[in-house]
Amino acid sequence: MTDTSRFNRREVMATLGAVAATIATAQPRFAHAQTMPKLRFGMGTKSMNATTINMVIGEALGYNKQEGFSIDPVPLGAIASVQIGLDKGDLQFGVGAPSFALPLYAKGELPPIVSFYEYTYPYKWDVAVAPDSPIKSYNDLKGKKIGVSGLGTTDYPVTRAVIANLGMDPDKDVQWLAVGEGVTAGVAVQRNAVDALAYFDTGFGQIEAAGIKLRTLPRPSNIPMIGGFFVNAKRDYLQQNRKLAVGFGRSGAKAAEFVLANPAAGAKVLLDAYPELAPRGASQADAIKAVLTPVLRRMQLFRPPYPNMKMGQISEDELKREADFLKLKISDFKPLYTNDLIDEIHKFDRQAVIDQAKAYKI
């Protein structure tokens, strides 16, 4: 889908076959995945990267096994595809983003999907240009080509909303181009294929780790705290499988504490599980450094920026701000989320996890 304002259930269902095929061909990463229930976790990216590190490394660290399940992370290339997979039961859990869900919900077209854990808090998107670019601000983007990693990822609708809030028409005043993820996106700016790149924290971290220099534009003053990423499940699945949902959230909370206590160890665990993240020909030390750069960016968003809230807890005010930012009229946000699992998710020995991280040998 190229525009969430035109994104409807008919279009969603039209892509169902492709999504189901992708999910069906996903292969487990870990040997013990065959000995216990496998849960498929859908992601909106085209490939594995550091964006979901706190939700996937619990497999290698043994946290999922402690909760009685294993996971198969499935990159589907678009948040919309994740919603399809959840709706049809092909995924048990998946990444959710209000920038995609709220427009559908406002029109009564969102499947019965509930967010129960916020694994990344706002705000994570920026626009960057080449160091010598004449573009100095977002207002200078009028008439320019803006690259995004993909038209099904969150950098596209969020930056569209920012452009619209500055008084520009995101359909007429700028041109959008999908330029790919990671280093490929940085190269598009470097080679002048686009005038600017709209991307999120870990993506810019990958570009930085590759030695590509970009200059980040100052964020407009009217950007609110929006754009959290959530773990979603279909409502009936969540009701019938509360223990698994708590376990998945608890594994994510433990993994976040592990990364915060020893970021390099977290990067090493992710790299060991997904060796394709290493730059071609890189030594192990250089590969860990390359993965660590985006991890250091993402880990800053693990804890809620709001007072008196636990990691993973969802603020309804954040959803309201995003709806206002997207100019949507929504009166009831309660069906979209629950915090009922948070206290149970945090029933673990946090210090033991921190000690494990600090003792981890790299």
Description:
The protein has 2 domains: 4-122 and 226-359, D-Maltodextrin-Binding Protein, domain 2; 125-216, D-Maltodextrin-Binding Protein, domain 2 (3-Layer(aba) Sandwich). The chain has 17 helices and 10 strands. The protein has helices at 9-14, 16-25, 53-56, 58-61, 63-66, 79-88, 98-106, 155-165, 183-190, 201-209, 235-240, 242-261, 263-273, 284-298, 316-325, 342-345, 350-359, and strands spanning 38-43, 70-75, 93-96, 113-120, 125-129, 145-148, 175-178, 196-200, 215-216, 229-234. The strands form 2 sheets. Strands 2-1-3-10-4 form a 5-stranded mixed beta sheet, with helices on both faces. The radius of gyration is 20 Å and the shape is globular. The N and C termini lie far apart (42 Å). The relative contact order is 0.16.
